[in-house]
Amino acid sequence: MTELKLPSIDYAAISPILIMLGTALLGVLVEALVPRRWRHVVQLTLALLAVLAALTMVVLSADERIITAGQALAIDGPTLFLQGAILVLAAMALLLIGDRSVERGGAFVAQAAVTAESADDRRQAEGRNGLTEVYPLTTFAIGGMLIFVAANDLLTMFIALEVFSLPLYLLCALARRRRLLSQEAAMKYFLLGAYASAFFLFGVALIYGFTAGIPGRTAGVDFATIHAAVGESPASPVLLFAGMALLAIGLLFKAAAAPFHVWTPDVYQGAPTPVTGFMAACTKVAAFGALLRVFQVAFADANWDFTPVLGAVAVLTMLIGAVLAVTQTDIKRLLAYSSIANAGYLLVGVLAPSRDGLAGTMFYLVAYGFSVLAAFAVVTLVRDDDGEATHLSRWAGLGRRSPFFAALFTFILLAFAGIPLTSGFTSKFAIFGPALEGGQAWLVIAGVLTSMILAFPYLRVVVMMWLSEPGESTPTVTVPGGLTSAALMIGVLATLVLGVAPAPLLDLATGAAEFVR
Amino acid sequence: MSNFPFLSVLTVAPLVGALVVAFLPRHRPELAKQVAFAWSLLVLVLSVVMWVSFNAGGDRFQFRESYSWIPNWGVSFTFAADGIALVMLMLIAVLVPLVILASWHDAESSKRSVPVYFALLLVLECTMIGVFAAADVFLFYVFFEVMLVPMYFLIGSYGGHQRQYAAVKFFLYSLVGGLFMLAAVIGLWVVGGKTFDWQALSQVDISTGTERWLFLGFFLAFAIKAPFFPFHTWLPDAGGAAPAGAAALLVGVLDKVGTFGILRYCLPLFPEASKWFAPWALALGVIGIVYAALLAVGQNDLKRLVSYTSIAHFGFIGVGIFAFTTQAGTGAVLYMLNHGLATGLLFLVVGMLISRRGSSLISDFGGAGKLVPVLAGVLFFAGLASLALPGTAPFISEFLVLIGTFTVNKPVAVIATLGIILAAAYVLWMVQRTTQGTLNPALTEVDGMRRDLNLREKVVVAPLIALIVLLGFFPKPVTDVINPAVQATMDDIGRTDPAPSVGGTVQEARR
Prior knowledge:
The complex is a heterodimer. Chain A is mainly α. In chain A, 71% of the residues lie in helices and 2% in strands. Chain A starts with 14 loop residues before the first helix and ends in a 5-residue tail after the last helix. In chain B, strand 1 and strand 2 form a beta hairpin. Chain B contains 22 helices and two strands. The interface between A and B is medium-sized, with 35 and 30 residues. Chain A: Belongs to the complex I subunit 2 family.
């Protein structure tokens, strides 16, 4: 009888993951044990402390480069960098989620099961305190993302995908107002997400089959085995290509790349705005972390096979995001399409297989995350009696009513448009430079052309805010409480600092930009 | 004194001034104007000191400063000025105080914050100085793009009719060009070994195909900025909608970034491609000269007319640059300066006329000279300078461009000469319809038309008139500075002037 050997686990290295998941469980207990009126404070404090503790552990293990827990988790430079990014951005998102001064009772529904549009629904919208289950859900999602970017085999990756997706589906359904829209968003996201997961799982199975039969190796779905199999496997390459394609579908869905992007505008619009910000920033980091690892570690030697296809996806994504952004009349949908286009730019970075390319992509993820969270923070502030005023026509003349917030939002839009001295410019440069160096000139040209198209919708918002006269229905900007202000200012400052002095973060990213195999 | 960091101080100073002005209380507009004016005078004084300490016979690039910025990408804050940049910096320093003075009451009619208007003008000055002073391609690109933002708000918030449309069109056109340039900048960075230093990049050998693509990327951005035909359609809209002061800076300085960029970046960095594309560029220049002049003749809006005349003049500058002779090149650079003075003056005077009448349509005027004789006289002078009358500064530059071009390309020179005739047509006809002839009775009912130039306005126009006349008779101080720089640029692309061949042609003619 063979002895069962337990894999050694480096608990210190995976402590950020343990902290987040442990806190999530603790959060569930808090829901059960702590009196209702204390829950909000306790939960928010708990979640923020956990993020802080996890971040501390990430910083402390900054030099760790190991594969642990069997072959399941790789704690290396990119993992730690992206985990740090997810945690910082999640902390900002938590600030937005926890704010109860902008809207009485917070952005979340008081009772999710109430029939939408009923009298009960209207009563809950009037200001009863929102659900506090959102905090454990968010911490679960963060924990899942931390695993997702560290996963070193496809099964772990799949489990992480589910761990962070399921809470997100729920969170989308919890908007305080426009309940139907919110529930529709959650339903769409859930159904399409389930399909994407199925695709991913099927891809794992095919890849497993592909790795079987290499002399001297057992079949497996850890990345080292897959990497070896790409060169040596006697199995038909059709298995590899089909498996890669199915995996890519699952991952590109989460990354909101075309043609798997259709859920994005609806979900971004329907979800509570703080959750939208959380998804736009953190989910993007996690999804691209996984894409980078899968394609640059597991399938690195098949890059001749996947580069043209992923390149086409990147071009399509940029094009669809940019062109459809032009036609949008709702600010949240506009930001959704902008996020799709940004997924396209990030894919260009994924296809630049050099150290600089990896560093540039990671830099882009952080820079974009900060800006997009700040953008959604402003969206939560522009409101009237009926909740957020997201229709663009309502933003006319906002610069006259609330010059300070309009100026901040203008700055963020200029960053999205890639004007120098903002992080939007430096991050584009960080990606396009290595891509051109890697011989992907056509992707860079496509990126530049779509940037031109994309500038137009951003500019239209600027025109709306500054050059149009305020109308009767122009809402005022709510003066935000401490939490939202903090998130907003962090986002704007980061956008400025990363645009003016990107060197420190670039150094950090370049230092971290090496996968362990 | 030459160790003083002139260029970085000159770049930063207006920005500091802008911050000061922007945070002055909104209900004290007079204070904001005074501070902005004083600040721009300070910049002018500093620029004069810099001009004096520039050694015309010395190094090509002087006042070089370099500070590390983003070492990962080889980006640094590197400033340096050659003669061409120096002349443009001087033009900015002279124009901005005059524009501030001329715009004294412009912002008040728009219901918007007056201090912000002047702060935006100072921010614009900062970016304009930066773009000419940069000697690092990345830094140049940064200023090139950021420059759009203050101008966008100047047009969009303080402009006249159709300001939103004009502002967005201006921004998008420039951004499109800028993004093409960004692609080329990244390409240059990759082939140049990951540095952005101009001097290092000018030593790099690039393969022919790549060089042509990179040239195109840069050239497109500059051709839109300048603007050359057929990328010019944004300028009449922007120039027509912008407040007169901003329009003077837009056409007088901002657009020169395009021609300056061709001289500083396209020619020295991509010499072979420049020669390959030169016939096309010359053709665009010549078409621009004739086409824009014809359109100018047909305009009924004063500011749009001046914008079209500028497009024609930019055609001349383009021809001068791509003729690749020292004379034509010097003429082109001198033209950039003189055009800034003459068209700047024309825009400002036209602005004074428009603010009095409350309309920019030529058909709303007629015989205005009888009501405001001094203003009409200044308009006439500005018009004459703009059509390059001998004795005014633009004549010298236009003449240099034409003779410099004639030695290498006769057809282009001949067609370009047509532009001079058309210039006379549009200028004189415009002057005639606005200020000469029988008095339009409607004018007498407008209060503003009874006030001739006041002291402030006289102070605005006097220095410009003096400079135009002075440089018209004695351009040597400026040409001395420009010549070595143009010579160096021509050396970069390996062109020497054709030897004087008068004797040869005469002999050939005798045979």
